[in-house]
Structure formats: structure tokens, C-alpha cells
Design goal:
By secondary structure, the protein is α/β, with parallel strands linked by helices. It has 22 helices and 12 strands.
Length: 580
């Protein structure tokens, strides 16, 4: 949590002024019981109306000054808290962008969403309340006790006993509930994850009539969250009644002591009223302090969760993503030249959470300008294989080289500048078609964009839209069909004019004729561009220079279409299932 508070440094003025004005408000409040004492002891017995009115005007002035101080403190604390949370949210978002696929898989998308929203909101509320009350409440509590000593030492000893008892109750409950709030936030992660899963998979759920089952699963995680919240709520609920009991007992003792001392002439009635008012002020402030501590407990728990995300990610990837490297090593490695664009040498890969390798002992080399088809059954490791090239996942064993250099030696931005990839799931972002295509290359001209669209067989799609390149794209490309999204995603990769193009089952929604035209157009772009075509369709890869057949994470065979039909049972089975 301490490392997060560095983000508040830019609001030093607000952090100082907010508690300062709150303390000024508290100082004026501490004078109120003394003025009431004077009204009761001087104004009322003497029936001095002018004196009473004058004291009432003083009370009104103190209230107005206190109001101004409170509003000013609230302004500064809110400004500091919202500014701090904005900076923190930006920092977390920037860090999430640097996380590897492995880190995102391990942490979970729903958890990251909760950290960005609910957790940071709790931290913001904690900072806001801390600036407003952390100095004020203890100041009023001890200030009221000191003021009580100025009135009567014997009666003030009651305050000395009450305040430690209340502190034990407040801090005891705080220590009890702190670990439970972590469990509450963890349960909230699961609710968020289940909600996200149901929203993204709503069509599949309805297609298989699983609404009732998913509703029951959601109710189950919601009940878990509710039960944790009820446990914490019940424990926290003890705070107010216990503090009220202690305070009210103290008031009874104070009234009794005050009555006895009034009867013997040591105290006046106004002094007793002032002492009771100070006790009530302590009660109010301790309740505020209790609520502050609960909020601080929540904020601390959430802060630790956010800090855990910020401390995640491998040092190697963080170095690469920020573009930091060793200049002498980089220059030396850049000089390496090779006739091979990609070299796999006994490569194995594990997703960390899995007990077995997703890829095992993969070895092959691809020359520049070569087109390689990768085919295999579902779960054979096709997407895993190509995800190693842009360093989405690290190699567990073996050696992987791009242009003669180890992938691990590249600065990731430099490596990914060489590679254009069309993901298995076509993703478009809210904006315009032009903005989506410019992700490939920011300085691309309209001519470059139209050329890429033509090659991707998407030019007709864009021409049919009002505004063409400036046509609106809804979130996730909802206003385009699956095939249109795939073609636009391919065009975005082609705009980049990469050295290596990876098409990961990116034509699955296209008909065979469009798929054939697309492959023909892509092959004519650049004779030196290395192309990887991943597909479950034999028709999509049969024209490749070489075809790699994967089976259960291993290379079953490598060769041309005609060779594999004769020598590879796995490929022949796939081909026969689609063409016979």
C-alpha cells in the first residue's frame, strides 16, 4: 500500500490543507460547550438577555466559520483523492498493457477489471476519509479530554478511562475484520468473472439452453459473496452498540459525579453540561473514527491487491516492453544475418498452470519468403506454436530464433515490428475503419489502406459502408459480420507490411472462393515475406510451400501436400474427412 501512496505526491498542498482546515473546524467546535456553560451559569441566572443573545451570535459565528472550514477541507480532500485515484488507475492500466499473456492468464481478466474499478474506488474513498478525519477525530477526542481537565480534574478522569476502552473496541474489531475484507474482495472477483463469462458467452448459453444452470452458478458465487459480507457486517455492527454502551455508561457516571459535585458547590450546572457535551463529542468522533478505520481497512486490503498486480510481470518482459536493453548487446545481435526467417530447435512450451507441455520438441526452419501451412486437430498446439514468435508466451525449453537472433534477446517492440498477426478471434475496436486499420501503421496513407483492403478481399465491404474509411465501427465490430471482421483484421495486419505474417485460422468464416482469392493475393504482396497459415482446413494450407502437421503438441510430419497424403496418416485423415 505504501508504494501506491507515491502517486499522491503531486497533491502535497491538498494533503496538508485538508486536515489543517478540519482541525480548525474541530478547534471551533471545542469552544461550543464553554460558551454553553457561560450561557447557563451567567446569562440565565442573571436573566441577562443581551448576554445570551451575544453568546448565541458567537455560536452562530463559530458554526459559520466551521462550515466554511469543513467545505474547504472537503474540497481539498476530494481533489487529492480523485487525483490520486486517477493517477493510480492510469498506472495500473499502463502496467496491465505490459503484462504477458501468461500473467493475464494467471491473474484473470475479471480480477484485473475488479482491481481497476472497485478496488481503486475503495482506495479513493479511504484516502478521502483519511484526509478529512484521520487528524480531526483524534484531535477532538483528546482535545475534549483536555478541555474537560480545565473544567474539573476529578470528573475528567472518567474520560481517561473511557477513551482507552473505546480504543480497544475499535482497533480490536479492525484487526478482526481486516483479513475478512480480503475474502470479500476475492469473492467479488468471482462474481465479476462469472458475470463477464455469461455476458461474453450469452449466445452459446442460449443456444444450449443453459440459462438455468448458469443462473444457479451465479447465485452460488453471489451467495458466497453475501455470506462473507454478512460475516464482516455482523462483526463491524458490534462497533456502534458497544461504543454507545461505553459512552452512555460514562455519561451516567459523569452525571452522577457532576450532581454530587454541584451539590457541594465544586461545580456549576453549566460545567456539568459542558462535560456532558464533551463526552458526546467524543462519542460522535469515535463513531466517525470507527467508520474511518473500517474504510481504511477496506482500502488497505484493496491497496494490497492493486499492489500485487503492479508487482506482477517478469522483469525480462518489463524491460523489453519499456524498450530498455543493453546497447552493446543489442548492436551485436542486430548484426546476425541468416537465410532463415524462423528457426525452431527442440522447442517445448508449458502454460505454467498445465501439468503437461502444450508443445514438445518442435524442430523446423523456415526460409525467408516461404509460405508455411500449419494444420492439426483441435488442441494440437497450432495457435500456441505461432504465439511464441511475437513472444506472447516464453519458450520453456529449446531455442527459437527470428532472423538469426534468439527471440528472448529481442526488444519486444522491435520483434513485434517485424511480425503482423491476425488473431484467431477477429477483434475490432470502437471508432472508424480508418482508425482500426492505422493500428497496423500509423503513417499509412489512404492508398496504403485501400491496397491492404484489396488484398484482404475487404474493399467491397468498406465501399458498401456510408463514409467508407470513415464508417463507424461499433465496440468489438458488432455492426460487421464474422467474415467482414476477419477480412478487416487481415487488412489491418497487411497495412503493417510485416516481414513475417501470421494468419491464425483467420479465414474460418470465409467461403472457399474468398479464402482462395485471399491466399493468392497475400502471396503476391512481397516475395521476401514469410507467411504462416494456421488452419483446420486442408484447402487453406495445401498450396503452401511446406505443411507442418501437429498432433498433440508434437510435429507429426513436415512436407508438401502430395507427400503428406502418402506418408502422414494424421494429415490424410484430416484431408479425407473434408474432401471425401
Amino acid at each position: 500500500m505504501r508504494s501506491l501512496l507515491k502517486e499522491i505526491k503531486g497533491y502535497t498542498k491538498e494533503v496538508i490543507l485538508a486536515p489543517l482546515f478540519k482541525m480548525l473546524e474541530a478547534v471551533f467546535e471545542l469552544f461550543v460547550p464553554l460558551i454553553m456553560q457561560r450561557i447557563i451559569d451567567i446569562g440565565i441566572p442573571d436573566r441577562n438577555t443581551a448576554y445570551i443573545l451575544k453568546m448565541c451570535l458567537v455560536l452562530i459565528a463559530l458554526a459559520l466559520i466551521g462550515l466554511v472550514c469543513a467545505a474547504t477541507a472537503q474540497y481539498f480532500s476530494a481533489k487529492a483523492a480523485t487525483g490520486f485515484s486517477t493517477r493510480l488507475r492510469r498506472k495500473v492500466f499502463r502496467h496491465i498493457q505490459t503484462l504477458s499473456f501468461t500473467d493475464v492468464d494467471h491473474i484473470g481478466a475479471s480480477t484485473l477489471i475488479t482491481r481497476m474499478t472497485s478496488d481503486i474506488n475503495q482506495i479513493q474513498n479511504g484516502v478521502n476519509l483519511t484526509l478529512r478525519l484521520f487528524m480531526r477525530s483524534p484531535f477532538v477526542v483528546f482535545g475534549a479530554m483536555i478541555m474537560a481537565f480545565t473544567i474539573d480534574v476529578k470528573a475528567a478522569l472518567i474520560f481517561v478511562v473511557v477513551i482507552p476502552l473505546l480504543s480497544i473496541v475499535v482497533f480490536g474489531i479492525m484487526l478482526w475484520t481486516m483479513p475478512l475484507y480480503k475474502k470479500v474482495q476475492g469473492a467479488l472477483d468471482r462474481v465479476t468473472g462469472k458475470t463477464r463469462e455469461n455476458l461474453t458467452g450469452v449466445r452459446v448459453i442460449r443456444a444450449f439452453s443453459q440459462e438455468d444452470e448458469e443462473a444457479e452458478a451465479f447465485i452460488e458465487v453471489s451467495e458466497t459473496l453475501k455470506n462473507f459480507q454478512l460475516i464482516v457486517g455482523r462483526i463491524s455492527a458490534f462497533m456502534n452498540p458497544v461504543t454507545y454502551i461505553i459512552i452512555n455508561i460514562a455519561i451516567v457516571v459523569l452525571m452522577y459525579t457532576g450532581a454530587v459535585r454541584v451539590s457541594i458547590g465544586v461545580l456549576t450546572q453549566g460545567m456539568v453540561v459542558a462535560l456532558v457535551n464533551y463526552m458526546n463529542q467524543i462519542l460522535v468522533e469515535l463513531i466517525k473514527l470507527a467508520n474511518l478505520i473500517i474504510q481504511m481497512t477496506k482500502a488497505a486490503a484493496c491497496g494490497n491487491r492493486v499492489e500485487a498486480v503492479l508487482s506482477g510481470g517478469s522483469a525480462a518482459e518489463e524491460k523489453a516492453l519499456t524498450g530498455k536493453g543493453t546497447p552493446e548487446n543489442t548492436s551485436a545481435k542486430t548484426a546476425v544475418s541468416s537465410e532463415f526467417s524462423v528457426e525452431f530447435d527442440h522447442v517445448s512450451m508449458n502454460y505454467n498452470v498445465a501439468s503437461e507441455n502444450a508443445l514438445s520438441d518442435v524442430t523446423f526452419r523456415v526460409k525467408k519468403g516461404e509460405t508455411v501451412g500449419i494444420i492439426g486437430g483441435t488442441g494440437s498446439g497450432k495457435s500456441t506454436l505461432v504465439s511464441l514468435l511475437p513472444a506472447f508466451y516464453p519458450v520453456s525449453e529449446g531455442s527459437l530464433k527470428v532472423d538469426g537472433r534468439e527471440v528472448s534477446d529481442y526488444d519486444v517492440s522491435e520483434l513485434r515490428a517485424k511480425i503482423g498477426i491476425v488473431m484467431q478471434k477477429a477483434v475490432l475496436f470502437q471508432g472508424t475503419i480508418r482508425e482500426n486499420l492505422l493500428w497496423g501503421r500509423e503513417d499509412a496513407t489512404d492508398a496504403d489502406l485501400w491496397e491492404a483492403l484489396e488484398k484482404a478481399q475487404a474493399a467491397d465491404v468498406v465501399r458498401g459502408k456510408e463514409g467508407q474509411l470513415d464508417a463507424e465501427v461499433e465496440q468489438e465490430g458488432r455492426n460487421f459480420s464474422g467474415g467482414q471482421r476477419q477480412r478487416l483484421s487481415i487488412a489491418r495486419a497487411l497495412v503493417k507490411k510485416p516481414e513475417i505474417l501470421i494468419m491464425d485460422d483467420s479465414a474460418s468464416a470465409l467461403d472457399f472462393a474468398t479464402d482462395a482469392k485471399l491466399r493468392q493475393a497475400v502471396s503476391e504482396i512481397d516475395p521476401d515475406m514469410t507467411i504462416f497459415i494456421i488452419s483446420q482446413r486442408a484447402a487453406s494450407v495445401m498450396g503452401a510451400d511446406r505443411i507442418i502437421v501437429l498432433d498433440d503438441g508434437r510435429v507429426a510430419a513436415i512436407g508438401k501436400h502430395s507427400e503428406l497424403l502418402e506418408n502422414c496418416d494424421v494429415y490424410k485423415e484430416i484431408y479425407d474427412s473434408q474432401f471425401k
